[in-house]
Amino acid sequence: MKIKIYLLAFLLSVMVTTSAQQNSQYLLLGAHVPEQAENIPGISKRMLINKLGKIITENGISDDVTNSRFILVPNVTVLTKDVLPTAPPRVALNLDMTLYIGDGEGGNLFASESFELKGVGSNYNKAFVMALRQLKPKNPRITAFIEKGKTKIIDYYNNNCSVIIKKADQAARVNDFEEAVAILGNVPAESTCVDKTIRPLKTYFASYIDFDCKQKLNLARNIWSANQNIESANEAARLLINVNPNAACFNDVRTLFREISKRSKELSDRPWEYKLMELDVQRSQVEAARDIALERARNFPNTLSYNIGRWF
User: Fold this and answer.
1) Is 265 in the same domain as 152?
2) 122 and 70 in a common domain
3) For residue 98, what are the β-bridge partners?
4) pLDDT tens for the chain, residues 1 to 312
5) What are the E-state strand segments in 85-138?
6) Sign, Cα dihedral of 210, 211, 217, 218
7) Which domain holds residue 109?
């Protein structure tokens, strides 16, 4: 009986953890190494960003974003630096690594945690890299730190819901439906704001895919009309295959695609490799809209100038 109880408790804990991770997949937290972090060697910055990314993702939050309002920032203090009397000599570092989570745009610090790291290498850079390896994403202190930061991020959305929706409305009024979708799609599922965003999110998503469809269809038509060869067929196809099947003009997309496909087979005498996007009935409009928001966050150039001077 005890074994069954323990097994049930374990399964419940796994389900809760998995659910929390799934719910947080649209909560964005970007890794950012600021210029004022002086003791981080340039050659190690990319490794450090990757390490911070693992800390974020392995604790159930989306990383790999370049335009996130909320950021995870490191700062390093060198406590000791010794040259060991070995042959050849080696460098031993004792570092204090402090991690911060906060609103990089608003300048508000949400959480911080410090870790003492030690590393030995043939030079400063290699010793620093060895020290970084001690920073484990699943360290209970790191997990608690991330959870605290996550709670504060959710609080931000809870407390600023009307401002967020108004900002999305303003973007939609100038036909920037992608921006409107991105703003609302970034509201995490755990926030009390999310229910208020669903209706406008669906509306703006429909407008976005219709607008996107018309643009890609017109451009594909122009490309195909100008020169009906294999190169033009492939160029037009690369536009059409990314049109959402729910878009109002998708039937016109299908018609043009069939015309181009038929002609390309005549020209090349072999099957065409392109296929239109298929409707995924298992995926809701809200999920599709949030995927657009996530993809935009990953690929959109970073235009934010972070205000984090008071954190250090």
Assistant:
1) no
2) yes
3) 75, 114
4) 444 333 333 333 333 333 334 445 568 898 998 877 778 887 888 889 899 999 999 998 876 666 788 999 999 999 999 999 888 999 999 999 999 999 999 999 999 999 999 999 999 999 999 999 999 999 999 999 999 999 999 999 999 999 999 999 999 999 999 999 989 988 988 999 999 999 999 999 999 999 999 999 999 999 999 999 999 999 999 999 999 999 999 999 999 999 999 888 888 767 778 899 987 766 777 888 878 777 776 766 666 788 888 888
5) 90-103, 108-121
6) positive
7) 25-158
Structure tokens at 104: 């990089």
- Please state the domain count of the chain: 2
Render 123-169 in DSSP notation, one character per residue.
Answer: SHHHHHHHHHTT--TT-HHHHHHHHHHHHHHHHHHHHTHHHHHHHHH
SS (H, E, C) 19-64: HHHHHCCCCECEECCCCCCCCCCHHHHHHHHHHHHHHHHCCCCECC
What angle is formed at CA 184 by the lines to CA 183 and CA 187, rounded to 5 degrees?
A: 100
Cα-Cα-Cα-Cα torsion 62, 67, 72, 78, nearest 10 degrees, comes to 140
Contact 203, 177 (CB under 8 A): no
pTM, two decimal places: 0.80
Domain with residue 59: its CATH number is: 3.30.160.150
Question: Which residue bears the tokens 């966050």?
Answer: 297
Amino acid letter, 283 = R
Distances from the Cα of 291 to the Cα of 97, 182, 221, 288, angstroms: 34, 9, 27, 5
Length of the chain: 312
